Amino acid sequence: MRFFVKCAALGLAGLAAISSAEAAGAAGERTPMAPPAFQDEAFAAWLTGFRQKAMQAGISPRIFDQAMRGASPDPKVIEANLNQPEFTRAVWEYLDSALSDTRVADGQEKLRMYARTLEGLEKKYGVDRHAIVAIWGLESGYGRFKGTHNVPRALATLAYAGRRQDFGNQQLLAALKILQRGDIPVAEMTGSWAGAMGHTQFIPTTYNAYAVDADGDGRRDIWNSVADALGSTAHYLSASGWQSGRRWGLEVKLPEGFDYALADPSVRKPLAAWKDLGVKPAKGSSFDWQAEAASLVLPAGYEGPAFLVGQNFRAILRYNNSTSYALAVSLLSERFQGKGTIAADWPRAQRPLARAEREELQRLLTAKGYDTQGVDGILGANTRDALRAWQRAKGLPADGHPTPEILARLRRS
User: How many CA atoms within 13 Å lie on the side-chain side of 159?
Assistant: First the structure.
């Protein structure tokens, strides 16, 4: 369901008319839109109401009017918000890109270039410099791709329309607070379509809570100051529970007959308990690691590599709640040091389920008495638990990992 809107800056009213020729184009690919006049009035009314909320929150009229001057819904943001990819990228494909030779080499160069800054951040926050630079590399390609969207306009678009209105409202208000403090001029507040900003892509609320002035110039400038961006990342990881001097985790081998239901973030055990269950390092003969509470992660199910992960991995998840992302940051930080290879093979013939298939899987499980607590295509804890229960009942490895083969079997059963 795609549609495009051609906008012109017309003050608070925002949207310009769309010609009949443009509205008729790309038939079958767009959803019919309300008349432009209605769009103008609706957005202007929303913006007037939000202005009152901003004033009540302490935003000055001058700052609000500067940020929203000429504002109109951004058609690219609308499209991105309504048309998320209908598939999940396989973890091995994500890692192939995230751990490319170019990204590794560029990161090693940044480690040399900013060695003094990173040393100071390690001492102050206790966060490993390699992890900081790995996040920088993954978030913006070491500053090459910081985003070009006007953040107030993008967030106003999200707050006005679509499925992320609460997020947009919260982040827009936070962005206005940044502008009111004078950390960045309105024209320079750029970022992603969802409002992530700067070298290490902080959303406004995260910026307000954790951004720091690491270079001492009196401003927290994650857009132009590498020191501020890296310092803010170190501060955020530290506040998220980073443990100084500890590894993120390690790859392991599981014994025959292992209970794959234990592979869940909610299950945390001391290393000694995992050893008692027959878990061994994938490389070497002993655990080169200390962890009071480690979890077992199977990013591709029982057919792929297995990892025990600790608190530092969980701190990275606070940055981006994706196992693939946290694994990429962790492995990239090791690649900088000549390590970070994976011993086991990925099941590359395995195809991730499309969103419609994930929704079908949830419906089938619920219909068979394994309630997923809703059908949304998001495979969270409820869906994993339901899938594990069904797998266990069928005598299958209960890893809670959906595959086309699992879906086909659900259809037949």
Answer: 27
The band of 222, judged by pLDDT with boundaries at 50, 70 and 90, is very high
Task: Read off the pLDDT of residues 312-321 as tens digits, 9 standing for 90 and up.
Answer: 999 999 999 9
User: 1 and 31 in contact (C-beta within 8 Å)?
Assistant: yes
Closest CA to 333 of 316, 310, 311: 316
Residue pair 18/36 in contact (Cβ under 8 Å)? The answer is yes
pLDDT in tens, 119-157: 999 999 999 999 999 999 999 999 999 999 999 999 999
- C-alpha distances (whole Å) from 76 to each of 83, 142, 150 are 10, 24, 11
Write the DSSP symbol of residue 142: T
CB count within 10 Å of CB 282 equals 15
- The answer to whether 189 touches 199, Cβ cutoff 8 Å, is no
The string of DSSP letters for 114-139 reads: THHHHHHHHHHH---HHHHHHHHHHH
Please work out, in degrees rounded to the nearest 5, the angle formed at the alpha carbon of residue 213 by the alpha carbons of 331 and 150. 80
Task: Look at the pTM and tell me if it is higher than 0.90.
Answer: no
State whether the Cα torsion 139-137-332-346 is positive or negative: positive
CA 282-283-287 angle, to 5 degrees, is 85
* Strand ranges for 258-335 from DSSP E: 280-281, 295-297, 306-309
